[in-house]
Amino acid sequence: MNTLRQAVAGPSRRFHSLTLSDPIATTSQLPPVIERYIQRQRISDPSASSLPNPFSIHRSVASGAVQPRSISRRREKQLRFWFAPESLPPAPSATSTPFSHTLSDGTEASLAWQADQQIKAKKTLYEGRKVQFKGHKHERDRPERQRETEERLAGMEKRIAEWKRNKAEAKQSTKPALPF
């Protein structure tokens, strides 16, 4: 029988198995992992109405440093399998909608997940420069060499015929007149 391990709420962090016969959570339930994440975030900043998405990387408000995802991709996949999509933060590519939930301590929380911030792409070494990298010598000489090669190939049949004629003349001139 297929089983999936899921964290139980509380400090023990023990696991119990959910079998395929277990019901999938309703939209009113939050996964214990997400509920703990919300409580940790509310302790650190009680006035915040939006939380960073635990499924994606985000920038720290205090330091501006990039913070790794709080919940791994493997764990996210498990949560998406066992819980309704409405009870989970949106996937990094999806948009966020506000939701209301009663936490385990009885407080009503109206939350919205923060949109993912785009991390700036690094500029390439020569992006935006007027003069690009001069390249290697053989790269700079390549167009001229190709032009010369094409010119020589264009008259190749004539050159081959002339070479054969000269070769035959040279052979005849070095050949002795007498057979001995």
Automatic annotation (TrEMBL):
Organism superkingdom: Eukaryota
Chain segments carrying region Disordered: 127-154
GO (cellular component) term, any one: mitochondrial large ribosomal subunit
Coiled coil feature spans: none
Pfam family of the protein (one): Mitoc_mL59
GO MF annotation list: structural constituent of ribosome
Residue ranges with Basic and acidic residues bias: 138-154
Domain named Large ribosomal subunit protein mL59: residues: 35-164
Protein name: Large ribosomal subunit protein mL59 domain-containing protein
Organism of derivation: Dioszegia hungarica
